[in-house]
Prior knowledge:
Elements: H1 11-16, E1 20-24, E2 27-32, H2 36-45, E3 48-51, E4 56-61, H3 65-72, E5 85-91, E6 97-107, E7 110-115, H4 120-129, E8 137-140, E9 146-151, H5 155-161, E10 175-180, E11 183-188, E12 197-202, H6 204-216, E13 220-222, H7 224-233, H8 268-277, E14 281-288, E15 299-302, E16 305-315, E17 322-329, E18 338-343, E19 346-353
Parallel strand pairs: 3-13
Antiparallel strand pairs: 1-2, 3-9, 4-7, 4-8, 5-6, 6-7, 9-12, 10-11, 11-12, 14-17, 14-19, 15-16, 15-18, 16-17, 18-19
Amino acid sequence: MEKELQLTCLHDRHVALGALMSPFGGFDMPIQYAGIAEEHNAVRQHVGVFDVSHMGEVRVTGKDALRFVNHIFTNDVDGAPDGQIYYGMMCREDGGTVDDLLVYKVKDDEYFLVINASNIDKDIDWIRQNAEGFEVEIIDECLVYGEVAIQGPESEKVMEDVLGLDVKDIPFYNFRIIPAEGEDIIVSRTGYTGEDGFEIYGSHDYIRKVWDRLMEAGVQPCGLGCRDTLRFEVGLPLYGDELADDISPIEASLSIFVKLDKPEFIGKEALARQKAEGVTRRIVGLELEGNAIPRHGYHVEVNGEKVGEVTTGYRSISTGKSVAMAMIDKPFDKLGTEVEVRIRKKTFPAKVVKKKFYEKNYKK
C-alpha cells in the first residue's frame, strides 16, 4: 500500500494561494504559483521564498560525532570552525551515492545533517546501520523543523527589514543559531539557486509566521518547478537525476567534494580507484541547436549509436538556450564534442559544454 502523502506546516498556505500541488519525495508540494518563469525571474532579479520543510534533518551528537560524520561523509569536516557548512555525499562501499547532503558543524561533538526528502527513511537507516562502534547519538529531527529558503539578490534586505533577523555578517556556507520569539532558530546562508540566499529552520509555528510576514511584504512565493530550473542553470545536481545509488560523485563530476586525503570513509577505496583509473562515463553539459527541448531520459547519440542520456534538460529561462545535463560515455564527454539528442523520432545536433549554463551570484 502506498504511503499517504505528508503535508508540510505551510500546506494550507499553498492551497489558499492557489498553488499547483503535486507529490514530491513523499510530500504534497507546490510546483508553481504565478508560473515557473515568473518565479524563476523573481529569484534571479529580486527575491523569492520556497517552502523546503520537506527536507530531512538529523542531529549527530556524542564524543565520536566528528569521527563518525567523517566516516560517512565524502567531504572533510575535521578542523571546521563552529558555524561552518559542508556539501558532500554519503556513499556505499562501491562508490554509489546514498545521498548528497549538507553538514552543519554546531560544535566538535554535534553536527546537523540536512538530507533529501525522497531519501529520508533510507538515509536514516543507513546512518544508523553504520554507527556501530561509534559513541554517538543519532536523532531524527525531521518532524521538529519547518524550513523556508529565501533566495535572490534582495534576500539579505528582506531577512533584515521584513523578518528583523541580523544576517549580514553570516558568510556564505555558514550558519548562526539566533534567538527569535522565544526559540532558537537556525539561519544558514547557502541555497540551491545560484543566488545569494538564506534558509531558516524553526518550529512549525515560527515558520508559518515567517511565511505570512513575507507574503504581506509582497515576496514572491516559489514552487519546486523553478527550484529545479534555477539549480539546473548553475550546474547543481538533483538526487535521482545527476546522482543516484548507481552514480558515484566521480561520475557526477563532483570530485571536488570527495576528500581522498582523509584517513578513511565509506566508499573511499572505490572512489580512489575511479579517480586513479578514470570512469567510463560522466555528467557533462550539452547545448542543443535551435529550440528543441531535451528532457530526462532522452538518448544522446553519435552516428546513430546511443552514448548516453539526458539527466535534466530545459530551455534555460535565464539564457534562452536549449541545454541539458547528460550522462555521457567516454570519450564523447570532451568539451566541444558533437553529439545528437533524440527527441521522439528526430535527432537534434548538440555539443558538449560546461555544465554551468549561468554564472552563480553568491555572496562573496
